[in-house]
TrEMBL record:
InterPro entries: ATPase_P-typ_cation-transptr_C, ATPase_P-typ_cation-transptr_N, ATPase_P-typ_cyto_dom_N, ATPase_P-typ_P_site, ATPase_P-typ_TM_dom_sf, ATPase_P-typ_transduc_dom_A_sf, ATPase_P-type_domA, Cation_transp_ATPase_P-type. This is Calcium-translocating P-type ATPase, SERCA-type. Keywords: ATP-binding, Cell membrane, Ion transport, Magnesium, Membrane, Nucleotide-binding, Phosphoprotein, Translocase, Transmembrane, Transmembrane helix, Transport. It comes from the Bacteria. It comes from Lentibacillus kimchii. Gene3D superfamilies: Calcium-transporting ATPase, cytoplasmic domain N, Calcium-transporting ATPase, cytoplasmic transduction domain A, Calcium-transporting ATPase, transmembrane domain, HAD superfamily/HAD-like. PANTHER family: CATION TRANSPORTING ATPASE, SODIUM/POTASSIUM-TRANSPORTING ATPASE SUBUNIT ALPHA. Belongs to the cation transport ATPase (P-type) (TC 3.A.3) family. Type IIA subfamily. It is a multi-pass membrane protein.
Length: 884
């Protein structure tokens, strides 16, 4: 017998579990040991050896190795071995860089891993989906991915989209009854939920019957091919730039070799020098360092509670000019407390804070109790038409489920109403809440078998559906003045920044069809709740800081316009002349009309997720780079369309998380701002080390080229060239990737996404500094050499030292857009350490006698150092005076 053919209790028996209690931890442990993790077999990893070997794949490195081999055969053992060791060390550095990048990407994947809601030992909890085992009782709701193959045990309008499995994109309605037919295909097994399919509507529970590769998806996955590794636009741009740089470097090197040979140097000597120069000058490590910088930045973001799902998002983050954010939960705490109740045309005040059931209800100064007409009924219905539960952990109250629902439970407790009262009502049908419908309804039967409907939702949605209103004397037809009085109450609540919710009911005959579109019409309006959802403390300053950074913050909410306006004012988000648009106005506007005003709009109220797409498009057409948040399944299209899709780590659904490029672990607006600033910083750091590496290379080529053109001896020998490349390009460049932002990074305004790598003066900085570094090294050579062949080794040592020192000083210049004097050089500890270790390596090569013959060096005296340092500071300091 197949799972879909079994009754739920048979499934329970087979898997030794009950849907009331779930599995015990012990059972879970045992089964996990038996069956392994609930994961599809992932792709094969590239072996470490391959990654290591890849470091030597580069064409010029291969040529260098071949040339070294020839040198070795000709008897130049010392040079040959030295070159090979340097190339090896370079390869090892590259290997570690790549490993590090890969590890942090893995860590990211882990952090973004999906979670499932599971019942274990009688309590609902969230666990990583990969920890599920057969027999686990799981709950899914709209926007989730089904975490494993499940036999549905309860379905409330549960629909799933199974195109990943069947190719069919229309959602399939699920139920819980057994199906007797045999040999059914997956799409006909409508009481089963399949791993990785998406819940598009409703909610339900089920028992896990298959995990990992034993799911229907697993069978398909075993046939599927691996996913490709993608590169970010910047990595791509740099790879392109790399090709040009290689061509230029090769050309210049060829020129050096030709000039050298023309001036009488031996072909062999010039060839080895040329190849070494090419290896040094080609920034082969650039893409790898960029990846490292991106992933290190990503790790810093994780510390600030933002998980980047796509590396490319880091670059785009720095360009963001608008943040469109949900209000509830992102700008506010999502901790609702009922503060006011409106019924019988009277407003009652509710005291108490948060989810603690401490507080009372007053009509003006007088405390009221359950006997206040309709109050008990209103609160009772609020408890029954409800999906949340109130929990206590270590004396701390929290809500499991929707905070709006939670607030209703807390309010009822303030009237000493026990949640057990809910058990007197049997729920026959539930129409869940979603942001589109803006309401939730249940059909219930009481102890006397009387049926009725309870509906709660946005007042503007419920009011037009209410034909009656309840007052002290019972039910009566809704009159115009009733309606006006309710509307006034809504406005009053909203102006106090309260979130409004209406509740109504309707008696039903036994035979009323439950799927009729009329079901939620002709309601009897009972009352209104006004809830407080306090703004998050840190959001106000985050909005101000964003504004200063040239980023506009926009609030998008399903709440009432006045509520939204009041909260936006509290947060200083809405300027005096700022506009508020609501869903109805948005509907009436064409995209062009919206474009015309959108720069003045700060708040969108009473909108549905569909509107978000229009908002994103209008902003984008106005030239903005838009970051857009979302949590529900319907938000996914807008998140996808935006430049930076942001989802909520805590309250978000799997589908939005998958569509997004950034996940906020704490659902907090302030985190978006930090991530954007961090994104800017990462990009700036990448610019810093591009500037550093390229200027160094220009200097290296220039000193060689000019010396050859001027008919001088080689100012540097091949090992020295390679050594310069190793000590200056490795650690200091990496440390620049860890640099702190320059003070004005936050004030610079968003970057133009179209700007090239060399924009904002970078090209000039590279050429000017590179040129000066080359000239400084050549001057050092000329001053030391003075045409005396006996001084050659001494002069080469001086040139070598000047080149290294000039670059190590220049690295501090690269930290600022302004000048080397603009920043405290000791601020970046890593850089100071990297530079000190490079200097140490330099000193070892110059002063340790066993290394002197290998590196063709000789010890330098104090006067030599004065010359070296004097020349080395010029390239960086010269421009320091000319700028602000
Ligand atoms: P956001 O600010 O994140 O867009 P929101 O909470 O303001 O979200 P929705 O969740 O779409 O917007 O809620 C819109 C309205 O629907 C609320 O103002 C409230 O009147 C009503 N509502 C919210 N939650 C529920 C619920 N659980 N049951 C019934 N009605 C609800």
């Amino acid at each position: 017998m197949k799972w879909y053919q079994m009754d739920v209790d048979v499934v329970e028996q087979k898997l030794h579990v009950t849907t009331k209690q779930g599995l015990s931890d012990k059972q879970v442990d045992k089964r996990r040991r038996q069956d392994g993790e609930n994961r599809l077999a992932s792709e094969e990893r590239t072996s470490r050896w391959l990654i290591f070997l890849k470091q030597f794949q580069d064409f010029m490195v291969l040529v260098l190795l071949a040339a070294t081999l020839i040198a070795g055969m000709l008897g130049e053992y010392v040079d040959a071995i030295a070159i090979i060791i340097i190339v090896l060390v370079n390869g090892i550095l590259g290997y570690f860089q790549e490993q590090r990048a890969e590890k942090s990407l893995d860590k990211l994947k882990e952090m973004a891993a999906p979670v499932a809601t599971v019942l274990r030992d009688g309590t609902w909890q969230k666990v990583l989906s990969q920890d599920l085992v057969a027999g686990d009782v799981v709950r899914v709701s709209s926007g989730d991915r089904v975490p494993a193959d499940i036999r549905v045990t309860q379905a409330n309008h549960l629909e799933t989209e199974e195109s990943a499995l069947t190719g069919e994109s229309l959602p399939v309605m699920k139920h819980a009854s057994p199906i007797s037919k045999d040999q059914l295909e997956a799409q006909d097994q409508v009481n089963m939920g399949f791993m990785n399919t998406i819940v598009t509507r409703g909610n339900g529970t089920g028992i896990v019957v298959g995990t990992g590769m034993r799911t229907v998806m697993g069978q398909i996955a075993s046939l599927m091919t691996q996913t490709k590794k993608t590169t970010t636009p910047l990595e791509h741009k740099l790879a392109e730039l790399g090709k040009i740089l290689i061509a230029v470097a090769l050309l210049l090197t060829a020129l050096v070799v030709l000039a050298g040979v023309y001036q009488g140097h031996s072909v062999y000597n010039m060839f080895l020098a040329g190849v070494s120069l090419a290896v040094a000058a080609i920034p082969e490590g650039l893409p790898a360092i960029v990846t490292v910088a991106l992933s290190l930045g990503v790790q810093r973001m994780i510390k600030k509670k933002a998980i980047v799902r796509k590396l490319s998002a880091v670059e785009t983050l720095g360009c963001a000019s608008v943040i469109c954010s949900d209000k509830t939960g992102t700008m506010t705490e999502n901790k609702m407390t009922v503060k006011e109740v409106f019924l019988n045309h009277k407003t009652l005040d509710v005291t108490g804070e948060g989810y603690k059931a401490k507080g009372d209800i007053y009509l003006e100064q007088d405390k009221v109790d359950r006997n206040f007409p309709n109050l008990e009924q209103m609160f009772l219905y609020g408890m029954v038409c409800n999906n949340a539960s109130l929990m206590v952990k270590k004396g701390h109250y929290y809500v499991d489920g929707d905070p709006t629902d939670g607030a209703l439970l807390v309010a009822a407790r303030k009237l000493d109403m026990s949640h057990q009262l809910q058990d007197n009502y049997r729920i026959i049908r539930e129409m869940p809440f979603d942001s589109e419908r803006k309401r939730m309804s249940v059909v219930v039967e009481d102890d006397n078998k009387m049926r009725f409907l309870i509906t709660k939702g946005a007042p503007e949605v419920l009011l037009p559906r209410s034909a009656y209103v309840m007052n002290e004397h019972g039910r009566k037809q809704m009159q115009r003045d009733d309606q006006q009085s309710i509307e006034r109450a809504i406005d009053n609540m909203a102006e106090k920044a309260l979130r409004t919710l209406a509740i109504g009911m309707k008696p039903l005959a036994k035979n009323t069809p439950l799927d009729s579109v009329e079901l939620e019409n002709d309601l009897s309006f009972i009352g209104l709740y006004g809830m407080m959802d306090p703004p998050r403390q840190e959001v106000k300053s985050a909005i101000a800081e964003s504004r200063e950074a040239g980023i506009k913050s926009v609030m998008i909410t399903g709440d009432h316009e006045k509520t939204a306006r009041a909260i936006a004012r509290e947060l200083n988000l809405l300027p005096e002349d700022g506009m508020v648009l609501d869903g109805a106005q948005l509907n009436a506007m064409s995209i062009e009309e919206l474009r015309d005003v959108i720069d003045q709009v700060y708040v969108f109220a009473r909108v549905t997720p569909e509107h978000k797409l229009k908002i994103v498009e209008a902003f984008q057409e106005e030239g903005h780079i838009v970051a857009m948040t979302g949590d529900g399944v319907n938000d996914a299209p807008a998140i996808k369309a935006s430049d930076i899709g942001i989802s909520m780590g805590y309250s978000g659904t799997d589908v939005t998380k998958e569509a997004s490029s950034l996940i906020l672990m704490d659902d907090n607006f302030a985190t978006i701002k930090s991530a954007i600033i961090e994104g800017r910083n990462i990009y700036e750091n990448i610019r810093k080390f591009i500037r550093y590496l390229l200027a160094s290379n220009v200097g290296e080529i220039l000193v060689m080229l000019l010396a050859m053109l001027l008919a001088m001896p080689l100012p540097l020998v091949p090992v020295q060239i390679l050594w310069v490349n190793l000590v200056t390009d490795g650690l200091p460049a990496m440390a620049l990737g860890l640099d702190q932002p320059e003070n004005d990074v936050t004030r610079r305004g968003p970057r133009n996404p179209k700007e090239g790598i060399f924009a904002r003066g970078l090209g000039f900085q590279v050429i000017s500094r590179g040129f000066l570094i080359g000239i400084a090294a050549l001057t050092a050579f000329m001053m030391a050499f003075q045409g005396d062949p006996d001084q050659l080794i001494y002069a080469q040592t001086i040139t070598f030292t000047t080149l290294v020192m000039a670059q190590l000083i220049h690295v501090f210049d690269c930290r600022s857009e302004h000048s080397i004097f603009a920043r405290n050089p000791f601020e970046n500890r890593f850089l100071v350490l990297a530079v000190l270790s490079s200097i140490l390596l330099l000193l070892v090569v110059i002063y340790w006698s066993p290394l002197q013959p290998i590196f063709h060096t000789t010890a330098l005296g104090v006067r030599d150092w004065v010359l070296v340092l004097g020349l080395s500071v010029i390239p960086s300091v010269l421009f320091g005076f000319s700028k602000k």
